[in-house]
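Appendix B. Chain record.
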Amino acid sequence: MKATEANLLQFLKKSPQFVIPIYQRTYSWTDSECRQLWDDILLAGSSDDVSAHFVGSVVYIEKGLYQVSSQSPMLVIDGQQRLTTVTLLLEALARLLGDTEPVDGYSAKKIRSYYLLNPLEDGDREYKLLLTQTDKDSLIAIVQQKELPPNHSLRIAQNFEFFEERISQLGPDLAVLCKGLNKLVIVDVALNRDQDNPQLIFESMNST
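Structure tokens predicted for this chain:
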């Protein structure tokens, strides 16, 4: 196991793909958690005294010990809720920005190319984050800007609408949101497949 501090957006940018294992629960964050994250991001973005905002850990497993070192998908042991919520927020922001770029790196094209998609890949490999069960098709539809499937995830749909509404309420000045997103920090925890059992670690983390 190797743990390091990482900027969340740079972590997403470097990562080829995160996959949620089938044994994990589905996406479950409610309006309350989304509102707390939103408030924290705006607070960080509006204050020069806040250099970073810690949002938790992302624990994943890959073939080697070194983080984000291969192009193979990484299984997420802990961090699904944060990764999914930030993905929804970024897509909502991309839709509102269009071709405008209030802060360097924040246009619709750049957000999707850096943090949501692998533009040169096809099929499932195109997406930075693959969820499980009904969550998977729901998130893909949102990132593709398509209509949600009939049997879609209510949490995914409701939380995406939450961020769309909040972003539209900010008006034309979205710099504070972009600056806040730039300050999100995680603990990047890479497990070693030769030494760590991902399902046992997942069960242990969720029982303590």
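Further analysis of this model is presented in Appendix C.
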